[in-house]
Amino acid sequence: MNVKFVFLDSGTGGLPYLKYLLQKHPDEKCVYIGDTKNFPYGEKTESEIQENALSCVQKIIFRWNPMAVIIACNTISVSSLDILRKTFPKTQFIGTVPAIKPAAQISKTKKIGLLATNATVNHPYTKKLIEDFAGDCEIFSRGDPQLINFIEHKFYSSSESERLEAVLPSVEFFKEKGCDVIVLACTHFLNMAEYFKIQGAPSLKIVDSREGVVNHAFQIEENSLQKNEKNSSDFSNSLLYVTGFKNKNDSLFYKNFCRENKIEFGGILD
Questions:
Q1: The model's pTM
Q2: According to a count of CB atoms within 10 Å of the terminal CB, is the N or C end of the chain lower?
Q3: pLDDT at residue number 222
Q4: What pLDDT shows up at residue 28?
């Protein structure tokens, strides 16, 4: 089975990256891996994150050997991109890192909100991004594991009002700091982007890294020997795999999740 792009996420919250890619390139067939067995990543140590990421990527390469692995998780990206590239030098890796640079370019107050996992907020990579691209800005960071958990487990069963209520504490935090831009630096938060825009209007703009990541993926394809190859017709849609179930109803949950998102459920990656 020829798959150009495999997405790796700590759960299923980064699915907006796959959706965005398919909006731009609807004929692509992709595989999405959610490391649900080890979710959440944001409260783990760097060594734990790297160990989990290496294990998943080893399985991905053995099974699909894709042109590129898109790390649809800021926490994995800032913690593990270097070791993944060194360990698997023949595979291209595309990271999703906090969109600090575009936020700094559009901020008028020079006060930027960074919403992420605690691991991403505190990582030296993030601090270096701020130093390199937002040296003239004041950054207000907020780790929000409760919101990440809500999105991973309750987003698709929640009402509009529950979603609006879920993002409100973060929006109010950044408004109180005088921010005019929020960087959604955890891919889970992209599921709530419209709700952040509603609650943040009119003073807060919302930025993320979807466009940059997808553009980078297809720049790599342009330079790849695989660019003229056709995808396998073994499946009609993109596939979601998870690494484990934590509750007895998880199998049904992911089947329904995939039906709602118009992708196929591949089951547990082993």
A1: 0.89
A2: C
A3: 73
A4: 87
| Residue 246, pLDDT score | 86
CA 133 to CA 161: how far, in whole Å? 36
User: What burial letters (b/e) apply to 121-152, b meaning 16+ CB within 10 Å?
Assistant: bebebbeebbeebbeebebbbbbbeebbbbbb
Helix (H, G, I), strand (E, B) or coil at 31: strand
Please identify every stretch of the chain with a pLDDT value under 50, giving residue numbers as ranges.
Answer: 227-228, 230-235
73 catalytic residue (yes or no)? yes
Q: Give the Cα separation of 265 and 268 in Å (integer).
A: 9
Beta bridge partners, 69, equal 6, 93
Query: Which residue type sits at 170?
Result: S
Q: What is the pLDDT of residue 225?
A: 54
Best CA proximity match to 263, nearest among 233, 234, 240: 240
Q: Which of 56, 137, 179, 186 is catalytic?
A: 186
Tokens of 189: 């938060």
Joined together, the tokens standing for residue 24 give 């731009």
CB 18 within 8 A of CB 30: yes
Report the candidate in 169, 127, 121, 123 with the shortest Cα–Cα distance to residue 141.
Answer: 121
How many residues make up the chain in this entry?
Answer: 270
φ/ψ of 95, rounded to 5, equals -95, 160
Question: Which residue out of 30, 73, 137, 179 is catalytically annotated?
Answer: 73
Q: Which two tokens stand for residue 114?
A: 């960074």
